[in-house]
Amino acid sequence: MTGERPLALVLLEMTLLVLAGPLVTGAIQKMKARLQCRQGAGVLQPYRDLTKLFRKGTVQADTASGFFRSIPVLVVAATVAAGAFVPVVRAGPPAFPLGDALMLLGLLALARFLTAVGALDAGGAFGGMGASREMTIAPLVEPVLMMVVFSTAIAAGTTELGALAAHRGTSWLLAWSAADFLGFAAMLLLLPAETGRIPVDNPDTHLELTMLHEGMLLEHSGPGLGCMVLASHTRQIVIVAVASALFFPVGPAGAGVVGVLVGAGAFAGKILALAIYLALVESSYAKLRLFRVPQYLGVGFVCALTALALRIL
Amino acid sequence: MSEEALHAVIDDLGALLLFTMILIVAAGQIYRAIYAVSAQSLLIAIAAAVLATATGNRDLWVIAGVTLAVKAVALPWVLHWIVQRMDIRREIEPVIPIAATLALSVVIVVASFQLTTSLGPVRQAIAGNALPVGISLTLTGVLVMATRKTALTQMVGLFASENGIFFTAMAVTQGMPLIIEIGVILDVILAALVMTILVLRVRSTVDADVADLDRLRG
Q1: Does residue A5 sit in helix, strand or coil?
Q2: Does residue A24 lie within any of the structural domains?
Q3: What is the pLDDT of residues A57-81, one digit of tens each?
Q4: Contact with chain B for residue A188, Cβ under 8 A
Q5: Per-residue pLDDT band at A1 (split at 50, 70, 90)
Q6: For residue B153, what are the domain limits?
Q7: For residues A172 and B170, which has the higher predicted lDDT (pLDDT)?
Q8: A10 CA: distance to closest CA in chain B (Å)
Q9: Rounded CA gap, A266 and B46, in Å?
Q10: Could you give the CA distance from residue A296 to residue B209 in angstroms, rounded to a whole number?
Q11: Residue A2, domain member (yes or no)
């Protein structure tokens, strides 16, 4: 279903994304647990964790400056704002001036930067190490993500995600051109890196020296930590939604409340498919050594570049 | 099958072939390279079948079947068998870092696309992107052969390179004479057998690999 998206719809979609973010994490955790023959916590566990965190008090390192307190709020604000750019229940450009995919990636990069600054500000050793590692990985991931966006944007002539999704249409594999296969391959390689999962990062542990993202959250506590965790849930669903907007078909047409519900159902299906992919990858691969990560991301880079070459040449 | 649909399918298969080639170049373990080259041969067989349905050329069905049996199943199985027999380390040994090889392969892909655009009329006559994809597969296969120290990974490079030639030949001529195709496949089988025996013999007599054989002693 296409057509311009009014402001109310964009806001509704953004809220939906933020509310569904923890659910995706919960679903992935549950699937991982089942794959490891464990019962696992319920899919609603991330919500319980969040409410618990928001009820707690805050403890802050003596070395942290005043800016440290505002970092979780800024990070969650940037990530949630990024959620506004993704089409959820229906495709089509927004009816009012809004940013495009580049703005979205920029906001996510801003959130990442603020997280790293916060980790360095608190002065903890783990935080600093996590930040330095995250900043090593980030410049390898972000350009590739941008090239994947470009490789589809060239065909549609726009970088606005809603318009890109509308251009993708309702047909799927049959309408894929050669470049889409390589772009999708690059996207699949990038998804675990961008969502902070194995083989690049390990989301389950706070105790290993190999961690990237979790290491940066160690100094946060209470509502601040809650904000950071909510931001990483939201970041994950935003990236997955970008992948589905770029490569998956839009939901079937419909109007009014029914159309929105059908669109939301189709969106849930697409997100679930990618969540299953993430859970499978996490369960079947070991975490890469940090020095092997650039090589892994290099494969994604080459795929994206080849997709771009196929599109242009 | 219409002309446009054929072009689109060959284009898509070309993209998947390039993807398997990237996997071969990036593979850090020999098993992955073997699986990737097997998948690549499978895609070549599919391409042959697609061209067979499109052109009605019966020889191409034979080619598809032979490719599937020999290059997608038998040769990878032989490679697998040698790897197990020799009990070699899982890591493959590149001469230059794998990241550099990946960068070079990008250069090759872009260059072959760029260079074939100057062949305008020729490229128009060929289904889809088959010509640049075939050329880049061939050259990247050579690159893999040149940048690996062990004979087995060089064999993988040879097979990939051969796949590229095969793909180009198939798309350019809409099916070469059967006798030539069979001859080419027999060549590959023979090369694989000779190299297999050579690798095993060299290994068992002097315990060296091809990288060590760089000096001629009189």
Answers
A1: strand
A2: yes
A3: 998 888 888 899 999 999 999 999 9
A4: no
A5: very low
A6: 3-204
A7: B170
A8: 35
A9: 32
A10: 27
A11: no
- Measure the N-to-C terminal CA separation of chain A; round to a whole number of Å: 32
CA dist A215 and A131 (Å) reads: 8
Please tell me which of the candidates A298, A310, A313 has its beta carbon nearest to residue B99: A298
Are residues B182 and B66 in contact, defined by beta-carbon separation less than 8 angstroms? yes
Domain annotation covers residue B217: no
Q: Are A98 and A156 in contact (CB under 8 A)?
A: no
Residue B135 lies in a domain: yes
Of B15, B22, B132, the CB nearest to A302: B22
Q: How far apart, in Å, are the Cα atoms of A118 and each of A106, A130, A178, A304?
A: 18, 11, 42, 32
Looking at the domain assignment, is residue A71 inside a domain? yes
pLDDT at A159 over 80: yes
Number of domains in chain A: 1
- Which two structure tokens, joined as six digits, stand for A87? 């089409």
Res. B89 pLDDT band, cuts 50 70 90: low
Structure tokens at B32: 């992955």
Three-class SS state of B205: helix
CB-CB contact of B129 with B116 (8 Å): no
Residues of A in contact with B15 (CB under 8 A): 178-182, 306-307, 310
**Domain interval for residue A12:** 7-312
Tally of structural domains, chain B: 1
Cβ within 8 Å, pair B114-A313: yes
Q: How far is CA A138 from CA A120, A133, A306, B129, in A?
A: 16, 9, 21, 34
Q: Which tokens sit at A203?
A: 């989301």
For A226, how many CA atoms within 13 A lie in the half-sphere containing its CB? 14
